[in-house]
């Protein structure tokens, strides 16, 4: 039987937040679904999901976007993990990360939430922090802008030019993580870009 992986893109619901920095995780799962020609459908766990495959004969992927706001993402994630019988070790949370420069991706499993309320809520709901995180760098604001406002702003013009590349690279990182494991994905995606 194929392994099942739950890949969750964190963000906020509704058109107001669609292209904001906080929703970059959802943009990544959108890209993973688009690569497979799939569209999201409603799920009773208060999320939108796509059931698909990494590739024919490969791992089964449940791509998900919670319908809740970022800070209460845990309920839908735990509901989906229970519904599909996915252990935390096969959960991948894709989220924005203030402490990583824009255009940078970092992967890890376990550890703290680093002040990210969405990750904190998922760990609490799963009763475990031992899930993989694909952390998509959005950088910190310059000047005096409050980081809470920064994450809810749309990407700037210069960022938007590189956003498709960043989202594509993050989707590649998710696929490699599932296919080859964390270390292989880290070795490729933590290397400086050339």
UniProtKB/TrEMBL annotation:
Role description: Catalyzes the release of premature peptidyl moieties from peptidyl-tRNA molecules trapped in stalled 50S ribosomal subunits, and thus maintains levels of free tRNAs and 50S ribosomes.
Keyword Chaperone part of the UniProt annotation: no
Key word Transferase present: no
Record's protein name: Peptidyl-tRNA hydrolase
Gene3D superfamilies recorded: Peptidyl-tRNA hydrolase (3.40.50.1470)
Native source organism of the sequence: Microbacterium salsuginis
Subunit composition and interactions: Monomer.
The protein's Enzyme Commission number: 3.1.1.29
Residues with site note (Discriminates between blocked and unblocked aminoacyl-tRNA): 12
GO molecular function: peptidyl-tRNA hydrolase activity
Keywords: Cytoplasm, Hydrolase, RNA-binding, tRNA-binding
Highest taxon above the source species: Bacteria
Reaction(s) catalysed (UniProt annotation): an N-acyl-L-alpha-aminoacyl-tRNA + H2O = an N-acyl-L-amino acid + a tRNA + H(+)
SUPFAM superfamilies: Peptidyl-tRNA hydrolase-like
């Amino acid at each position: 039987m194929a392994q099942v992986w739950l890949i969750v893109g964190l963000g906020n619901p509704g058109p107001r937040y669609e292209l904001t920095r906080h929703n970059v995780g959802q943009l990544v799962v959108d890209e993973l679904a688009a690569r497979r020609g799939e569209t999201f459908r409603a799920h009773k766990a208060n999320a939108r999901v796509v059931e698909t495959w990494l590739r024919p004969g490969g791992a089964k992927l449940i791509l998900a976007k919670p319908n809740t706001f970022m800070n209460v993402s845990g309920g839908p994630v735990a509901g989906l993990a229970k519904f599909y019988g996915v252990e935390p070790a096969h959960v991948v949370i894709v989220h924005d990360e203030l402490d990583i420069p824009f255009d940078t991706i970092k992967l890890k499993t376990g550890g703290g939430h680093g002040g990210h309320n969405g990750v904190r809520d998922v760990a609490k709901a799963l009763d475990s922090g031992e899930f993989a995180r694909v952390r998509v760098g959005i950088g910190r604001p310059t000047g005096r802008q409050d980081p809470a406002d920064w994450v809810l702003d749309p990407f700037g013009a210069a960022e938007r030019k590189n956003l498709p590349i960043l989202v594509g690279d993050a989707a590649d990182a998710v696929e490699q993580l599932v296919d080859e494991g964390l270390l292989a994905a880290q070795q490729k995606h933590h290397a400086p870009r050339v």
